[in-house]
Amino acid sequence: MKLIDGKKTAQDIRAEIKAEVASRTAQGVRAPGLAVILVGEDPASQVYVRNKERACQDAGIRSVPHRLPASTSQEELMALIARLNADESVDGILLQLPLPKGLDADRCLLAIDPSKDVDGFHPESVGRLVQGLPGFVSCTPAGIIELLSRYDLPTEGKKAVVIGRSNIVGKPLAVLLARPGRFGNATVTLCHSRTADLAKECREADFVFAAIGRPRFVTADMVKPGAVVVDVGINRTEQGLCGDVDFEAVKDKCSAITPVPGGVGPMTIAMLLKNTLQSWRQRLGLC
Ligand code: L34
């Protein structure tokens, strides 16, 4: 079994980004800017946002935090987004999800300028992804494809099962896996809570992507020997952080697997920096 080290791969990518930012800023180009909006006090979101801000700083990306109370109104949030859209020094706008009750995430995401949509959640970005047009791809699915590519685990011609149909992970990941290319061209099955026989679908898969949000949901009997298993779950249990895959049981059956923590999570952050870098290049005409 090969352990797919997302933490190490993310560090490599962050170093590449840092080098590019350093060489451009040394020539007098302004640093990339990412606005990070966090509404309320969700403890997991606070951890992720802190990790994102630290990664930005480290890479020479100016991160501008906007921490708002859970009592923030929809109109206040819309006004902030409008202000960030108009701010020339902001290349990317990140609205950390989920939002507190009473706020309409879809309305907010629709208000973000698609040219600053480094999270890839705007309907225009999603539409572009589905149509195979250039645009921002959401960070978690993009990070997964990047891992497959850097570990040379091609999906072309293989059967891929994605478990979970969220807008953030499952749906865009299924689209990416079906795109042309060596790390696409898979025959994709998108499974969810109404799938008739999920264990059977998984057992037939060469690649399993678990994004359900249920601790140790994927068990050894669901995995074909030699399959590649990617665990997208981050579940907080009494025994600490745990993925959607029963790692200890599955690790000896598969050919490669991502751990939790240290797998897909750090890649999500690396891809956010990469999207911010891409936006900065496009906005400043550095290509
Ligand atoms: N807007 N909302 C927006 N964009 C995103 O891309 C996200 N996501 C998801 C939740 N909401 C979002 C994230 O940032 C999940 N997510 C995320 C980011 C980072 C990590 C996990 C999820 C991460 O750093 N994971 C570490 C462990 C961190 C911990 O201790 O909890 C890991 O090694 O997996």
Your description of this structure?
With 287 residues, the chain is an alpha/beta fold. The chain has two domains: 30-113, 3-Layer(aba) Sandwich (Rossmann fold), CATH 3.40.50.10860; 139-265, Rossmann fold (3-Layer(aba) Sandwich). 41% of the residues lie in helices and 16% in strands. It has helices spanning 6-26, 43-59, 74-86, 105-111, 123-131, 139-150, 170-178, 198-203, 247-250, 264-284; strands at 2-3, 33-39, 62-68, 92-95, 159-163, 187-191, 207-210, 228-231, 235-237, 240-242, 256-257. A six-stranded parallel beta sheet has the order 1-11-8-7-5-6. Strands 3-2-4 form a three-stranded parallel beta sheet, sandwiched between helices. Helix 6 (139-150) packs across helix 7 (170-178). The termini are far apart. The model has no long low-confidence stretch (mean pLDDT 98). Residues 47-48, 51, 94-97, 119, 139-140, 234, 241, 260-262, 265-266, 268-269 line the site of ligand L34.
In the sheet with the most strands, the strands line up as 1-11-8-7-5-6
Provide the list of bound ligands, each named once.
ligand L34
CATH architecture of the largest domain: 3-Layer(aba) Sandwich
Highest CATH level, the class of the largest domain: Alpha Beta
Radius of gyration: 19 Å
Name the CATH superfamily assignment of the largest domain: NAD(P)-binding Rossmann-like Domain
Number of helices: 10
In short, what is this structure?
41% of the residues lie in helices and 16% in strands.
